[in-house]
Amino acid sequence: MRRQIPILITTIAGLVFAISYFIPHDPFGESESIFGDWITIVQAFAVWLGALNLLKISFEKISSKSADRHYAAIIIVSLIGTLAVGFYDGYSGMAQDPQVSFRDPGTNFDWLYRFIYTPLSATMFSMLAFFVASASYRAFRARNVQATLLLIAGFFVMGGRVPLFDMMISPITDFPVFSWFADWIMTYPNTAGQRAIMIGIALGIMSSSLRIILGIERSHIGGGSG
Amino acid sequence: MEMISIWIAAILTLGIFSFLYKDNPLYKACEALFVGVSAAYWAIVFYFDNIYKKFYEGAVTAEEPDYFLWIGAILGLLFLTRLVPKIGWVSRWPMALIVGATAGLWMVGYFVSNAMNQIGNTISNIIARDELTGAIAWGETFGTMVILVGVVSGLVYFFFSKEHKGVFGATAKVGTWFLMVTFGASFGYTVMSRMSLLIGRVDFLLGDWLGILR
């Protein structure tokens, strides 16, 4: 019961989607649509599971008087506050004529997105620029052919994306060497490497998917493979 | 109000940047705020887009309700049993649905788009021609040759069932060169995208907040 039913669901769902690619007619075409709707709904509950789990862990940290309890309190307040604002804007917007989406400009939820969420996320990711710069200082050493190629490709792609490098060689030639070479690297050698990786990944996904559908791979239901 | 909002955004930006000096309470508070707000933000977006619009309007308030949607909602609710350890095993059912459907979808779709189409694009139109005159475009032809050599040698490198020796090993070595160029280009591209975000934040601080940049 605990193992057989999930394996059966996995196999049926996998087969329906795989077969519907080749037979896009009923009953497979319609089944794909029904399964697709279910997945859309289940995905939303999965996101809610994550949020509720975060809430649960944060409350546990406070009750156990953990050293991080103050930050757990901030998580709880900001999470519940944002949920309250979102629900209020969502339902009050639907009651208006014409209806207003909770994401429309001027709503409280949009304010949270523009002045809280965006600055925090953009700054968090922009900080990676410093860490990547320090990592590249250590990684970009021309020790052998492979490392030299990595260095040259990285240097030209970065140099070709800013006008400074083309300006620096403008007294010698008007031809934008850096941006042209950066484009050439991205269009040809980079495409070649990306394609080799993509083909390898596709073959790997195909074999993994087959193992999942056939019930050989069971790690997603809490069991090992085989 | 706009000024207060900008001040709040600026303080949060500086709070996150303060980590560059060292880990500190202000950074941790901003980080906790980010975690809480982003979790709730996506929960609200998915609630109204997927649960309300797809399920509620499709199965409850619709003139011709789609009763099949109830199965999706029940499976979704079963997902939440994960929060109760005693009955947490029930959450494997919706998980099985997602994993099975993704496996079925990707097994064929990913293979067609990422293997067959990529192979097709690599081996077709190797000799590039000028669209107007029909003459051979030597520059582009050289480029497509580079792609062909790069893809074949890259795939040879990923083939581990045969020892990388002799002609096979030399081809695999050429493959590693192409892969290194790809990694270098991806690295450079990632650095530039992060720099772009950094410039955006500095532009906000110096422009919108302090008004130094106009």
Question: Can you give a write-up of this model?
Answer:
The complex is a heterodimer of chains A (about 230) and B (about 210). Helix content of chain A is about 75%, strand content about 0%. Chain A is mostly helical. In chain A, helix 6 (about 145-160) crosses helix 8 (about 175-185). Chain B is an all-alpha fold and about 210 residues long. Chain B is about 75% helix and about 0% strand. Chain B has 6 helices and no strands. Chain B is extended. In chain B, about 35% of the residues are buried. At the A-B interface, helix 1, helix 2, helix 3, helix 4 and helix 5 of A face helix 1, helix 2, helix 3, helix 4 and helix 5 of B.
Shape of chain A from CA axes?
A: extended
For the secondary structure, the number of strands of chain A is: 0
The interface involving the most residues is between: A-B, 127 and 118 residues
- Which class do the helix and strand fractions of chain B yield? mainly alpha
SSE arrangement of chain A, N to C:
HHHHHHHHH
Strand-residue proportion of chain A = under 5%
Summed up, the helix count of chain B is 6
- Rounded mean pLDDT of chain B is 93
Q: Which term fits the overall shape of chain B?
A: extended
Q: Tell me the strand percentage band of chain B.
A: under 5%
